[in-house]
Amino acid sequence: MFDTRELGRRPGAMKRLTREVESPGDLGVEFIKVPDGATIELDLRLESVMEGVLVTGTARAPLTGECVRCLEPLDQRVEADFQEMFSYPEADDRGRPVAEPADGEGAEGEEDTLFLEGDLFDLEPVLRDAVVLALPLQPVCREDCPGLCPECGARLADDPDHGHEDAVDIRWAALQGLAETMTDGEKDNEPRTDGDDSQEK
């Protein structure tokens, strides 16, 4: 929770904050995430506006995961920018009630609206969305990572000249064996030219 009492409710007031918070956990995608309990650095700007408090910020956090190409461990950092409005719960700063939306469209809109709780606001849902959206869906150890050898699984970055003799597709192995058998049979049936004719003469 962050406190806005020092900011006040006069439109145009602004306050900057720098904080370190602990990761709320489960902050990641399949191949990469912010470690549970890791420190997230926050730079925040709070602005008082007519409807509430506008929060603009940047979050920086460490990442752990694995490269999707070579499966090597990754240690990276993510930087995520965000901006969110936290509305006053019942009235604006002039004491007038917030107008009710017409045509029954308010329910869905309220689900997307974040409210101040007294003078406090909870940044966790905003932070979670911003960081997860900033994560790479296909993290790599380097942009030109060549990945693994499809034949033996060796990491190609460690051995750029890595290679294998032409491998036979297992689906064609039986046919190749048959072809070799036929070739051997043809050789056995070839007429002998070991000098017998010269002896007959």
From TrEMBL:
It comes from the Bacteria. Pfam families: YceD. Residues 184-201 have a biased composition (Basic and acidic residues). Residues 91-110, 177-201 are annotated as: Disordered. This is DUF177 domain-containing protein.
